[in-house]
Design goal:
Blueprint lengths: L3 H30 L3 H27 L19 H29 L2 H31 L3 H23 L1
Helix pairs in contact: 1-2, 1-3, 2-5, 3-4
């Protein structure tokens, strides 16, 4: 059984994961409108992944006798100055999500809720990966700078990553 405080904290994480899905969805829309097919595909995939993260916590709350709540969502940013600006936002957002996951882990340890602690370890590892990918992509964009052909190749590379991810799911 979840404590009231942990139930509340997990519902806050549900909201953050849902907002994350919407942030990536807005980024996908912006990229698509700007002609970045690969970046848009990558962001659509990220949006779907964040929704899955939200659902995993949502279901967990109910399974543990808590009360999962569908959150109200605020409007998310939907325009960016550049691709670098957008990926800077991605990294900043993922660092924030990691911080919130760490706070949840801290609550679990204080309350000695080892089942929830165990469930959250998947999120800890996932956030390490999310930050690594965001940092790597941003580093590549910084190397490219404002070179249009470089940004074009970056976009094409992300399109191939999306294709590879789709092929792995089919296998």
């Amino acid at each position: 059984m979840l404590s009231k405080s942990l139930n509340k904290a997990l519902n806050q994480q549900v909201q953050l994961e849902f907002e994350s899905s919407n942030v990536y969805l807005a980024m996908a829309s912006w990229a698509e409108q700007e002609g970045y097919e690969g970046i848009a595909s990558f962001m659509y995939l990220q949006s779907d992944e964040e929704r899955m993260h939200m659902l995993k916590i949502f279901k967990y709350i109910n399974e543990r006798g808590g009360n999962a709540e569908v959150p109200a969502l605020s409007k998310v940013p939907h325009t960016y100055k550049s691709v670098i600006d957008m990926f800077t936002s991605v990294l900043k957002h993922e660092v924030h999500v990691s911080s919130e996951i760490n706070k949840l882990v801290d609550i679990c340890l204080k309350e000695k809720d080892y089942a929830t602690h165990n469930m959250l370890q998947w999120y800890v590892a996932e956030q390490m990966e999310e930050e690594r990918v965001a940092r790597t992509l941003l580093d590549k964009l910084k190397l490219i700078g404002t070179d249009k052909s470089g940004v074009y190749m970056f976009d094409r590379d992300l399109l191939s990553i999306r294709s590879e991810a789709g092929n792995e799911k089919e296998a």
